[in-house]
# Entry
Amino acid sequence: MLDLVLQSVASVLEPKTFLAMTTGILAGLIGGAIPGITLTMTVILVLPFTFGMDPLQGIATMIGVYVGGESGGLISAVLLGIPGTPSAIATTFDGYPMAKKGEPGRAVWTGIWASLLGGLLAGIPLVIGATQLAKLALTFGPWEYFSLFVLTLSIVGALTEGSIIKGLLSGALGLLVTTIGADPLMSIPRFTFGYAFLQTGFAFLPILIGLFAFSQLMQDLAKRGSEPEIENVARLKLSVSHLAVLKDILSQPFNLLWSTLVGLWIGILPAVGGSAANILAYDQAKKFSKHPEKFGTGVSEGIVATEASNNANVGGSLITMMAFGIPGDAVTAVMLGALIIHGIQPGPLFVTTNVKVAYGMLAAYFVAHFVTVAVEAACLRYFIRVVTVPLRTLVPIVLVFCVIGSYALNNIMENVYAFLIFGILGYLMVMTGFPLAPMVLGVILGDQIEVNLIRALMTDPDPWLFLTRPISGALLVLALLSFVVALYQERRFVRRRAASAA
Amino acid sequence: MSRDGWIGVGLLLFCGWLYLSLGQIPANPLVPIGPDFYPRVLLLLLIGLSLALVLEGLFAKRLPRERAAPGSWLREYQAVWLSFSLFFLYVVLLPRLGFLFSTILFVAALQWILGERTWRRLPGSLLTGIGTAVATYLVFEKYLYVLLPRASWLP
# Structure
C-alpha cells in the first residue's frame, strides 16, 4: 500500500499535475481567505477548469483547492477577525485577539503549522481507512447499501439546525429530483412532461452550483449593509520565528492529537463538515486546558485546536467519500460530482478499479499540505490584499463562472436554466429555514438508493430482510436512533426557549 | 397558520399533483417492480412530512411581529432583486448575443449597480466587464478548449 502511495506521489509531482494542483491550492487559499466566498463555492468555481484535464490532474487540482481553502480561511479569521470560511469560525476566537495584541505573524503561522500537522496526522487513517473500509464495503449487498444511504440521509436531515421536519423534507425533495428523467433500471421516462431536456434528468453540477453558489451570493448581497469594516492590514508585520512557533505547537501534543481526532471523526460523519469540527475542537481544547479562562484572549491552544481539526476534517471526509461514495461534507459532495464528470464512479470499487486516481488522490492530499505552506510563505502578504476585494466586483465575476461551469458540462443552455431554477429554489429554501445540505445529499444519493432498493426487492421480495440482515438492520436502527435523539434535542430546545421566554 | 404551515400546504398540493401524474407512467408486465414504485414511496413520504409541517404550522405559537412599512421589503432586498433581474437578463441574452458581448454588458452593469451609481464609475465597471469576459474567453476557449455560448446571429 505504501509503495502505491509513493509511486502516486511521483505522479503528482509530474510538472503538469503539480502545476495544476498548485494553481488549485492558490485558488483555494484566495477563495478561503475571502469572506463571503465559501470553500464549496471555490471548489465549484474551479471545477470547470478541470474539464479538459485528465482525471488525476483534475482530482489533484480539486484536492489542492480543498486543502488550500481549509488553510486559507484562517488568514482573514486571524488578521481581520472575519472567518474566510465557516470552518475557521473558532479560529477568530483566539487568532484575532493574538493578532490584536501585536503578534499577527505568530497567530497566522501557528494556524498554518497546526493545519499542516493536523492534516498530515489525519492522512495516516485516511490511507489505511479508505482502503480497508472500501474492502469492507465490498461485502455489502443492496440491503446494506440502501440502509447505509438511509442512515446517511437521516443523520444529515436530523442534525441540521432548526426543524427536523424541514431537514427531512429537504432530503426527500433532493431524492425526488433524481426521479425526474429515465428510471435507472428500465430507462422509462418519469416526470418529463414532454420536455426533451428532462428525458435524461437534471445534471448534478448545475443543481449544486445553484443551491450552494447562487443562494450564497444572494445571501451575501442581502447582508451587504452589515458588512464589517475591513481594517488596513497591508502593513502588518508577519515575520516570525518558525522554530519557536513549531516548538509551541509540539509542546501541546494532547491538544494537537485530540483536535485532529475530533476533526477526523466529524469528517467521517456524512455531511457534517468543518464548521462543526473547528467549534467542537475549540470547545474540547478549552475543557481539557489547565487555564480555560485564558481562552478567547489570544492563546495558541485555541488556534492549534481549530486549525488542526479543520484540516483533519478533510482527511475524514475523504475516507467516507473514497470508501462508500458518500460525501463527508459539501466540498466532497462537489468532488464526487467532479469524479463522475471525469468518468469515475465513486464507491467501494473506486479504490480497486481506479488505483491510479485513488492513490493519486491520497498522494495529492499529502503533497498539497506541504505546497500550501510554501505558497502561504511566499504569498501571504498578497492574499491580504485580495481579501479586501469588494463584493460588487466579486459577485458578477463569480456569477459568470457559475454560468460557465453549468454550460460547459454538456455545452447546452438548459443546464444554465437548471442552475438558475435551483439557485432560486436554494435561496427561497434558505430564506424559509430549509437546510440545503440534506437536499444536496438526496440529489447525490438518489439514484443509488433507488437502484439498491429495487435490486434488493428483485433479489428477494421479502422486505424484512432489510431488518434481519445484521449490518443492514444495525444501520437502520442507527438511522432511527439518530432521528429519535434529534427529536428529543429539538423538543428540549423548544421547552428551554419557552421557559426562558416566560 | 404560520408561514411554514402554508409552505406545507403548497408542498402537499405539489406532491399530490405529482402522485396523480404517476398514473401516466407506462407499466412493464415483465418486471414485478415498475418505474413508478420508488417515486410513489417517496411522494408518500413527502406527503406525510408536508402534513406534519402543516400541523406544526397550525399549532405553533405565533410570535408578534412588527408591521413592516409598505415597500420596505423592496428597499431591504434591493441588491438581491436587482442582481437577480440582471442575471436573468444575462441568461436570456447569452444565446442571442454570445458569451463575450453579453458578459461584458452583465459584469459592467452589475458592478455599476452594486456600487455608487455615478457616471465617473462607469468606465471602471466597463473595464472590469471587458477584462472578465476576455480573460475567461481566452482561458476556456483557447487554453482549456471549452466551448462557450455563441451568438445565435453569427454563422
The CA atoms of residues 27 and 93 of chain B lie 42 Å apart. Chain B touches chain A through 59 residues (CB under 8 Å).
